[in-house]
Amino acid sequence: MCLAIPGQLTESNGDEGVVDLHGSLVKVNTMLVPEATVGDWVLVHAGFAIQRLDAQEAEETWAVLEDLQRSIEAEEAGGAGA
Amino acid sequence: MTRRSIDMAEVLDRLNTAAAAIDRTVTLMEICGTHTVAAFRCGLHSLMPQNVRLLSGPGCPVCVTSQSDIDMMVALGSLEGVIVCTYGDMIRVPGATGSLETARSQGAQVRVVYSAMDAVQFAAEHRDRQVVFAAVGFETTTPATAAAVVEADRRKLDNFTILTSHKLVVPAIKALLDGGDVSLDGFLCPGHVSVIIGAEAYRPIVHEYHMRCVIAGFETLGMAAGLTRLTEQVRDGQVLLENMYPQAVTSEGNRVAQELIARVFEPATVAWRALGEIPESGLVLRPQYHQFDAQRRFNLAAPDSPDPEGCLCGQVITGRATPHDCGLFGTACTPIHPIGPCMVSFEGTCQAWFKYRRPAEPASAGGRS
Amino acid sequence: MTDLTHTPSPDHSNTVVLAHGGGGQLTDQLVAQSVLPRLTNDVLADLLDAAVVDAGPGRLALTIDGYVVQPLEFPGGDIGRLAISGTVNDLAVSGAAPAAIALGLILEEGLDRAVLDRVMDSIGRAADEAGVRVVTGDTKVVGRGQADGMYITTAGVGFVSGEPPHPGRVRAGDVLILNGPIADHGLAVMLAREMPEVRSVLRSDVAPLNRLIAKVLERTDGVRFMRDPTRSGVAGVVADLAERTGLRIVLEQEAVPLRPETNHAAEMLGLDPLEVANEGKVIIVADPAAAAEILAVLRDDPLGAGAAVVGRVEAADAPLAELHTAIGGRRIIQKPYGEQLPRIC
Fold it and tell me: Is residue A70 a part of any domain in this protein?
């Protein structure tokens, strides 16, 4: 149920947009991503674009993992974790 | 470590290296039905080191929809002039009186939709029918329902309501940990729920429960990397919140979506199938949107529906049992004759085990050479 | 309700009406206008109660299939092309040379005659491609709201000389060969039906494979068994093969041809491409010594352009169908449980 696919926004008109999902052009509602513009990569779920993706990394999503070192916080919450 | 491209062989190598340095069993849990299926389909389970167990948690929204919610959907579909719109995943889940699918075969009006807006559009085009949308799902899906309600309100539709069954992931994790009977080393957190709620939503889990949380997407490499980071954290004695899906998940999430949800819904204590009531773990419509509540419009009382006898779904989805521990698994309960929701749902743990695991495979880990 | 004693209303020329199924003049007219011109052959033109054709050589093979696909017309094909290809392919994978087809049409009152004509065109073209004749048929019309436009049933006869392919001939060490990329048909139809607003590049692979298969059987030795992976897809065939032979069937995920856009469509719908229907594909189980030759014959033909060895048969104590995944993992393959993709064929 959490299926969401990245694709490129090819048309945008108010809350309505069209996303190119690698060969399929799908109409999506863009109200959740007001800052997205044509050419942006977005994540599509159940007829909605739910997030704007970092363009370069969206491409890499399909094949490659990004840097493992990027963490939200390097704070150690305790040494007795194991 | 420098920023560079990583490949699967390297990730699996790191996973095995980390696991080898830990002299006990590590138990990790993924809490999203989509992760359950994806991990099995790509063969990741078979590549887990011998001492790393991967359990499935209560993250299949279909599986945790209470039996009484299903019964209400079925009852509504059978009413004259009412049509129930639902995501396809829900259609086979059995309630006490059967599923939406069996109800449909007996004449109930049930329609599969791919988007909540489709249900609103249908209602707008069929003003002579009452359209009820079965609103099921975690936070990934909730914004769509909220948008649908706002749209129905804008269009002043008097024939559109929703049967709300939306649930929240973080309260579910807390309830699972509060239950106390599973010893876990970390959670693989659902990437697309996290897109909406933001990485920081898991901070209380890390701080209050001293529990590792790593967010991962659904492609194979992302899941493998997430499991690897969890294992490395165990080896290194760390308890961290990490985001392995940064291109889609930000620390604060999608604010627009969160505001939309908060405008339409408020948290409430709701019943989870096989888990009972969990405080503040579900959503109900706010008073100004009560006219879109199907339960109110049709004056439905939630029926008291006990779970099927012998069914261990509740224990399976909280990691206290595996499907193999259930006496019904594979015999009385199969995908063709399912008894519990974990076997019905294509994202259910029991169905995944039945479909993808060898019959004789041991419950813990793969570790085949 | 249509009153059959009165002169039919003027629009029967562009719409199917109940009287078209009555067996009287209007039926004759429908057959003369929509059916015969597109299926020209002497046997059919006689329009007798049964078709009499020359037999053999060899033993008779017989098959029948009903076609209820929705929508009737989809990217890459239509119900007519499907009705010929499906039945021809069932004969072909059984080692039979298809000889004749019987065509049953059940039409819904109100069906646009232009749709009927296009479907009949398609049937004619597919029959020509296959080199097979539609020698007899029947037309019925049912009321508005029934038959979803149209249902088609085709029965086919063919003749088998020599030893037909059979699961009993499969041995440990044999290889599995596919003639091209999978899942195109099921996904093209699914998208066309469920998401008609999606503009997709996906096209059904529906095609008659009898000439391709005949070439393989003539020019090579070592075909043990064949199956066309229609409903339930490649997974269904492989799981079934394991059960029938009692052996282990291993499929290599990386080797299975799959177009990227088809894969992405499957992901969008949450489906496993291995479980999706194909209508222009054959799985050939063969002696490994013949594999190179079989591939050469397949690849020499447009319908076999993407042919590849995708798996193998291994000895086993108990039947098992297993996928070796792209990342080097394993998981079992089971026959899908049904209605994932309704009305696909």
Answer: no
Domain-terminating residue out of C117, C136, C160: C160
Contact status of B79 with chain A (Cβ, < 8 Å): no
A82, part of any domain: no
Tell me what percent of the residues of chain B surpass a pLDDT of 90. Answer: 57
Q: Is residue A81 part of a domain?
A: no
**Which of A8, A20, A22 should we substitute to test contact with C (largest number of C Cβ atoms within 10 Å)?**
A22
State whether C330 and B368 contact (CB < 8 Å): yes
Partners of A43 in the β-ladder: A6, A51
Residue C247 φ then ψ, to 5°: -105, 175
How confident is the model at residue A79, as a pLDDT? 33
As beta bridge partners, residue A19 has A9, A26
The shortest C-alpha distance from C268 to chain A (Å) reads: 6
Number of domains in chain A: 1
Sign of the alpha-carbon torsion through A74, A78, A79, A81: negative
CATH number at residue C274: 3.90.650.10
Task: Check pLDDT > 80 for residue B360.
Answer: no
The ipTM, to two decimals, is 0.84
Q: What is the CATH number of the domain that holds A41?
A: 2.30.30.140
Q: State whether C148 and C74 are in the same domain.
A: yes
pLDDT digits (tens, 9 = 90+) for C244-279: 999 999 999 999 999 988 988 888 777 899 999 999
Q: Which chain A residue is nearest to residue C260, measuring alpha carbons?
A: A22
Residues C212 and C145 in one domain: no
Nearest-by-CA chain A residue for B25 = A82
Q: What is the pTM of this model?
A: 0.85
- Which residue of chain A comes nearest to B245, CA vs CA? A66
- Higher local confidence (pLDDT), C307 or A70: C307
Residue C145 sits in the same domain as residue C293: no
Examine the domain organization and report whether C128 and C246 are in the same domain.
no
* pLDDT tens by residue, B90-101: 887 877 888 888
DSSP string, C247-308: SEEEEEGGGS---HHHHHHHHHHT--GGGS--SS--EEEE-GGGHHHHHHHHHTSGGGTT-E
pLDDT in tens, C171-189: 999 999 999 999 999 999 9
For residue B150, the Cα-to-chain-centroid distance in whole angstroms is: 24
Residue numbers of the domain that contains C175: 167-332
- Chain B: nearest CA to A65, how far in angstroms? 6
Q: pLDDT tens-digit profile of C119-155?
A: 999 999 999 999 999 999 999 999 998 999 999 999 9
Residue to mutate among C190, C199, C271, with most A CBs inside 10 A, is C199
Q: Pick from C327, C333, C335, C339 the residue to mutate for testing the B interface (most B CBs within 10 Å).
A: C327
Element (H, E) at A61: helix A55-61
- pLDDT score of C339: 55
The candidate with the shortest Cα–Cα distance to C324, out of C259, C261, C249, is C249
Residues C267, C208, single domain; the answer is yes
Residues C58 and C148 in one domain: yes
B-chain residue closest to A27, CA distance: B115
What is Dmax (Cα atoms) for chain A? 54
pLDDT greater than 70 at residue A53: yes
Nearest CA in chain A to B205: A77
Cβ contacts of B354 on chain C, cutoff 8 Å: 334
pLDDT, position A56: 63
The answer for residues whose C-beta is within 8 angstroms of residue C258's C-beta and 6 or more apart is C181, C182, C183, C273
Q: Does a structural domain hold residue C246?
A: yes
Domain count, chain C: 2
CB pairs under 8 A between A and B: 167
Q: Does A22 touch chain B (CB under 8 A)?
A: no
Q: How far is B59 from chain C (nearest CA, A)?
A: 16
